[in-house]
Amino acid sequence: MSEQPRGPLSGVRILDLTRVLAGPYCTTLLWELGADVLKIEMPGHGDDTRAFPPFQNGESVYFASINRGKRSLALDLKNEGDRKVFDGLLERADVLVENFRPGTMERLGYGYDAVKEKFPDVIYGAISGFGNTGPYRDLPAYDLIVQSLGGMISINGPEGSGGYRLGISLGDLAAGTFAALAISSALYERRASGQGRFIDIAMLDVQTMLLESALVRQFATGESQKPTGSRHPVITPFDVFQAKDGPIAVACANDHLFNELCDAIGAPALKEDPHYNNLFARYANQPALKIELEKVLAADTVAGWVEKLRPLGIPVAPIHTMADVVNDPQLKARNMFVEVDDAEMGKLKMAGSAFKISGYEQSPTRPPAPNLDEARADVMKELSLPHEEKRERVKQDPKEPLW
Amino acid sequence: MSEQPRGPLSGVRILDLTRVLAGPYCTTLLWELGADVLKIEMPGHGDDTRAFPPFQNGESVYFASINRGKRSLALDLKNEGDRKVFDGLLERADVLVENFRPGTMERLGYGYDAVKEKFPDVIYGAISGFGNTGPYRDLPAYDLIVQSLGGMISINGPEGSGGYRLGISLGDLAAGTFAALAISSALYERRASGQGRFIDIAMLDVQTMLLESALVRQFATGESQKPTGSRHPVITPFDVFQAKDGPIAVACANDHLFNELCDAIGAPALKEDPHYNNLFARYANQPALKIELEKVLAADTVAGWVEKLRPLGIPVAPIHTMADVVNDPQLKARNMFVEVDDAEMGKLKMAGSAFKISGYEQSPTRPPAPNLDEARADVMKELSLPHEEKRERVKQDPKEPLW
Fold this sequence. Notes:
Two copies of one chain form a homodimer.
Chain A: E1 13-16, H1 22-32, E2 36-41, E3 55-56, E4 59-60, H2 61-66, E5 71-74, H3 80-92, E6 95-98, H4 104-107, H5 112-118, E7 123-128, H6 143-149, H7 170-193, E8 197-202, H8 203-208, H9 213-221, E9 238-242, E10 247-251, H10 255-264, H11 268-272, H12 279-284, H13 286-297, H14 302-309, E11 316-318, H15 322-325, H16 329-333, E12 337-342, E13 346-351, E14 356-357, E15 365-366, H17 376-382
Helix pairs in contact in A: 1-7
Protein name (chains A, B): CaiB/BaiF CoA transferase family protein
Keywords (chains A, B): Transferase
GO molecular function (chains A, B): transferase activity
């Protein structure tokens, strides 16, 4: 790659054995920080998400968004010839990332110990549901299972409910992000020591680090947090309220903001009321305060209140649908929607990068996700191995999903 | 610090001006990766979360969990003497992290341009609600506001609802994690270039990168994702079902697993039924399939099904409450609950680290969070400045929150 460095990890070579979400999300983040990512896929099949809806011109938009910019090489790690290619790639790689079930890489002869023996400087990132140790090690894990066991479901959803899975696959996304962070820090350390590392990231462990106050409260008080709807478990008012024509978010995290809110909505009596005039009182009387505020907020529309309260510095917001999100002026100004021009799929739009780092250009476009095995000729040349013909592109038939 | 390196960022000095959640979470992750974190707080007041419930012996467990291991120095950046101390710290720092509203650091004379002029090698991480550019730049942002504008609320919660805030402050937590990742990658790059960077992380930008398929679907099809309860928007069955005595999570992401499930629960007819015998059919007939499965699952308890299905490799799980989470054998085996012995608060338990990296010891304990200004004598000595007496510890009165 002779172009301008895309980010601080420019020049880092990632050998990417990951599939579906947690692993590919990890390597996408590393790509966005500048790394070169070579995705190794099963010949003829490829990453399962190549068959995930929605589709555009018969190809998966889901796959395209989580694998933009990567290159693809199809290798069967049980095939001797392909293993030679893989060894050549390992020799040149800085990082290997995989998200198979623990034990799979060992069975293929590429567990960490085997890799380390030949390539001691390789940073080996393993992402799995439960990690490489412990009684759950060999259990299958999906995002839903991890959210269930990690307590995430039990604290998410309407008050009085038993909880709901988060609307995003945070089990996968967070594990991928934590893995990228661990890998990046190991790359930093390796510049001094020359040493590779084994990084063992478990989705369930990561969930535990995201429980915020629920976990410490459980340990400190024995009190189990339950779903609290849209409101913050402690801060009040910090909730979604009903205005004349729909819901509006209001977040007043201190007395000063609460007082400003009361004045601005024409309810100055509330700020003097001993039931509401300090944070602990508001917390204790949260249901009554919600009724009082909704009485007043019913007088105007969401748009009306946002227009009135925002310039006063009071934190309010409409509840954006996904259709609103793609039109948000701030996200547009921040280049958060980038365009991909894919030869087969046509134009696509997707999330850009939240990594705004000085000295690196913020491109409004991304290279497309690779066709299966698309990089074969290039990789063979880089490895000075005999050139093989590029394999045929696998077109997915949405009627016959492979997963 | 002469002890064994705690992690790959050992030796990295973080000058930490952050408060509340997004910023302190970022520096906690960096601490867990080995960095030394010096927390700069307002004299007499300190981080607002020192007054966040729950409390143990009058001190905040919330603060304690998000600031374990850090050191604290109280500085007023408007005071000339304190600014000299701060300049001395900047000279020795590798990284500065702050999460004030954009413009605040400039008004204090410590915006990036000013810092860069004197200390060009400092990596400057700025975390804010909307970032340093764009029309929302100066608006106040809290987690709820960012979740509202970012579309997160609109896709979370029971089917048919208007959506609910996620049960965790993911706006803060994710921004802190992404900031840590950007900082770590900039540290890697700096080892080669010697160059500092300005890193501008916006909570709203980060939300956009976590929308998974909802955003690309909106762009590709114009279809706005809505809350889908506990079920996956596409994969079926991937949901929480009612068993005899409560809810159970079942995640069968492919035909193979679905067939195994049908056999194991004694409903082999389902796997042959053309309404359910492939993923697209199951997706189309999801409500009917849920009814069929719940009919069968009603025959046994959650514990009964888990005991039966887990050994068969079928991904099932009970919905853990927070009380279950703290007793989970896998999390215990993974050292995910660490102990802190605080001189004033006594023993505390909190989440450990999901960063399992070879060559670094996994300690079952953490040093406590600092008392306000506790590191003063040490820091003055390190800077060879005249020693001042340690300031008094600020005890928070929960009746009089400072925020």
